[in-house]
Sequence to fold (226 residues):
Amino acid sequence: MTRLYWARLAIAACAALTVTACAPAVPTTTTTGAGGSASTSAQGATCSYPVGGTPARPVDPPSTTGVPDTGTTAATLHFTSGAVTITLDRAAAPCTVNSFVSLASQGFFDHTACHRLVDTGIFILQCGDPTGTGTGGPGYSFADELSGHETYPTGTVAMANRGPNTNGSQFFLVWADSPLPPDYTVFGHMDAAGLAIIQGIASQGVSAENGITPIADATITGVSLG
Fold:
């Protein structure tokens, strides 16, 4: 997975977003596998999670039928610096929330470092890769859940991807309004206290060594659901 996620944004605003040599400072992953499709019914959504590649940690794919597709649920990311509670939107992104909840319940995110901080042009903290390298995923992928009108204001939680329908486990937390194309599934929003935690991590900047790794400890020690 070498395709840069936000190539269009990079072309439009390369000078603002580069790390080095006009390489966009945006999320990338290398999870393999084609994206699946989703449908809804009175019994809930039907999702597809085609397997492909090696998971960063042993994990089972989520259930595919009877997926809740109404209302919201909560998840709390326990960082070393505090708790970040997210309201997950099942109605807007049932298959995405289903995957996130499944991974969290299996401990996939436990003791993982958010490996990428972007603080120029766009403002995100990228998480969800147990390897901490930006290359790890769950060994399956799934389809985008987009309306085409997505925006990414402060507090948004959205999926990182490597192109259409290539979602895996990596997601990003938007800590300030970010001008992105509507290509990234929005599946939740942080609470005010949690946003302050992420902004505190971001305020310490990135490592001078690679211009990507947060200087602050950005480790998710665990995730609680509900």
Observations:
- The helical segments are 7-12, 14-17, 94-105, 192-203.
- The radius of gyration is 16 Å.
- The first helix runs from residue 7 to 12.
